Amino acid sequence: MPANKELSATLDIEGNVPITSVQLDAMVVLKIVKHCRESAPATVTGQLMGLDVNGVLEVTHSFPMPKNQESEDFEGSQYQLQMMRCLREVNVDDNSVGWYQSTSMGNFMNQSLIEHQFEFQQALSKSVLIIHDVARSSMGNLNLRALRLTPSFMKLYKDKKFTTEALAKAKLTFSNIFEELPIAIRNTALLDALLFELETSDDSVEVSTSHLTTYKSASSSNNSSSNKSVLTPSFDMLDLSLDPYIAKNLENLMDTIDEHHQEQGNYAYWQRSVERENKKKAAYLLNRKTENARRTQAGQAPLPNEDVDAMFKLPSEPSRLDHLLISGQIDNYCKQINQFAGPTLGKLFAVGELQK
Fold first, then answer.
1. So what's the pLDDT on residue 223?
2. In three state form, how does the secondary structure of the chain look?
3. Which has more pLDDT, 104 or 194?
4. Residue 233 banded pLDDT, cuts 50, 70, 90
């Protein structure tokens, strides 16, 4: 019996242990990268399979969703059930633990993604969203983020009440819509053996590694050098031409700021409308009070009470969800510009010193 209790606690059958990190198998990462890169710049999605063990969400398998999922004849739930049934038949993990989505330039903060993740976390409390930025990964570093909606945001989204008062009471801002979990990539023993074999392979044996690289190497014509390993790192990331990426980020930032300004205009219009209705209500009450005073002096009965709130209905406050998402997107663009502008300046200064 103690052994069964320990196993139940480790596997968290009752769902009491919160998720603290995500562990991705290397094959899952390759599948996600391959699917997102082949479909770029279109946005694609897929399902994640695995199991949570002692607070660590282990993702062991994934499969992509078809591109025609927007058509009327496509039924996503039936497709997922069929895929999970097939995985079960070949003894592969068929427990859904979340989904992944591709993005470009960090542009993923929208209501469609929020709604999809909310439905996932409602059905599966420990589900996670993996975001893969294709454009940012092409600059030299693989970009993967594991995100979950925070409990405070889940509560507000369930109530569909994104007013200024509700946001202030929940202390919700754009920075705590999502909680980001650390990601660890796990290599299987076979993959470790393959990498070791490639690294220490005999120079007399020709090994093709073109399918393993993710960048176009400019030194492909120098493969005859005997003192180079087959896994020699690419020097493309030392390229100074990062201006197009930063310029595109600045362009997206300007467009998002325009959307933010439009949202502020809508909110200011609502405030002016409320102020006008309040002035009308105050003027009506003042006139009614004056009239009742005159009628009392004249010995007449005062006017009957009326529902003033029903006569002057205040316009409802617009949802602040769009404002939150736009603010979060602006924050993403600013962070990306800051991260890439710093290394670019460092490279330029280094090259300048070398040329002296």
1. 46
2. CHHHHHHHHHHCCCCCCCCCEEEEEHHHHHHHHHHHHHHCCCCCEEEEEEEEECCEEEEEEEEECCCCCCCCCCCHHHHHHHHHHHHHHCCCCCCEEEEEEEECCCCCCCHHHHHHHHHHHHHCCCCEEEEEEHHHHCCCCCCEEEEEECHHHHHHHHHCCCCHHHHHHHCCCHHHCEEEECEEEECCHHHHHHHHHHHCCCCCCCCCCCCCCCCCCCCHHHCCCCCCCCCCCCCHHHCCCCHHHHHHHHHHHHHHHHHHHHHHHHHHHHHHHHHHHHHHHHHHHHHHHHHHHHHHHCCCCCCCCCCHHHHCCCCCCCCCHHHHHHHHHHHHHHHHHHHHHHHHHHHHHHHHHHCC
3. 104
4. low
